From TrEMBL:
The lineage of its organism: Bacteria, Pseudomonadati, Pseudomonadota, Alphaproteobacteria, Acetobacterales. The keyword Cell wall biogenesis/degradation does not apply. SUPFAM superfamilies: Metallo-dependent hydrolases (SSF51556). Residues 1-22 are annotated as: Disordered. It comes from Falsiroseomonas stagni DSM 19981. This is Predicted metal-dependent hydrolase, TIM-barrel fold. It holds the Pfam family Amidohydro_2. Signal peptide: none annotated. The keyword Hydrolase applies. GO terms for molecular function: hydrolase activity.
């Protein structure tokens, strides 16, 4: 992707039309440093700094954010922990990538800095696989963290007994990649909805462009169904710097789509402010 825009990895310069409430949270973004070692199987990415992301937040009028360790760096959380320290606990939290057997002292040290969960990229299966989900969930429960999953509907459906038995909350990335045609018939939909309706699951309304290339209106239909069913279990994120996008999106336009999905200001307040505060422990 080109980085020739005024702010790297985002199109447009105008602020969103949507009124953004104070305390809003971007619940999913990454940072990259081309000089940092790439883990085996990881995908390199051009520089995308915390300062660049701060400019995105300023344009959007969003106050707080959640750093998410990408698979690019595997189990080495150094870059994102440094960004977390730079941002400060008042404004930022982090989701790390850790192995189930990571020494607890190291995890507790991460928690003291603002790490609140761990992510498993089950699509790539590196550095963690489906076999790690159950033991990682037990580790999350020990720490009071959540488990964030990037997984296909087939993986989610295949893990249904494991996910329903996990002793920790589960956060599904990017609409859980649910199919846009007849999603209600998808076995993954049943799993995700069961967890959210039981108060044990969350979903990120992020990266819609990865779903809606063939029929742009379909992701809105899915989003509105989620908002109608479980508005208290939804959060929103930019996914900046959009590592898997084929075309750089306009982050303000992405935020404006939330007004279409959740027309009521009180619902948007929940998705942008109140729900993230509960999930990530913001004051």
């Amino acid at each position: 992707m080109s980085t020739t825009h005024e702010i790297p990895f985002t199109a447009g310069t105008a602020p969103p039309r949507l009124p953004v409430p104070p305390g809003a949270v971007d619940c999913h973004h990454h940072v990259y440093d081309a000089a940092s070692p790439v883990a085996p199987g990881g995908r390199p990415h051009a520089d995308a700094s915390l300062a660049d992301h701060a400019r995105v937040l300023a344009r959007l009028g969003v106050d707080r954010h959640v750093l998410v360790q990408p698979s690019t760096y595997g189990l080495d959380n150094t870059l994102h922990l440094a960004a977390l320290r730079q941002a400060g606990r008042g404004r930022a939290r982090m989701v790390a990538v850790v192995a189930p057997d990571t020494p607890r002292a190291g995890l507790r040290a991460m928690a003291a800095e603002g790490v609140v969960g761990a992510r498993a990229n089950l699509v790539q299966g590196i550095p963690l696989s489906v076999d790690d989900v159950a033991p990682l969930g037990r580790t999350m429960a020990e720490l009071g963290w959540h488990l964030q999953l990037y997984a296909t509907p087939a993986i989610i459906a295949g893990l249904a007994p494991v996910l329903r038995a996990l002793p920790c909350p589960v956060v599904f990335d990017h609409f859980a990649q649910l199919p846009l045609s007849d999603w209600g018939a998808s076995p993954a939909w049943a799993v995700v909805m069961d967890l959210m309706q039981a108060g044990r699951g969350w979903m990120k309304l992020s990266s819609p462009y990865a779903l809606d290339q063939a029929r742009p209106e379909a992701v809105g239909e899915l989003a509105r169904a989620l908002v109608a069913a479980v508005p208290e279990r939804l959060v929103w994120g930019t996914n900046w710097p959009h590592p898997n996008a084929t075309t750089i999106p306009d982050d303000a336009a992405l935020l404006d789509r939330l007004a279409e999905w959740a027309p009521a200001a009180a619902t948007r307040q929940a998705i942008l402010v109140d729900n993230p505060a509960r999930l990530y422990g913001f004051d």
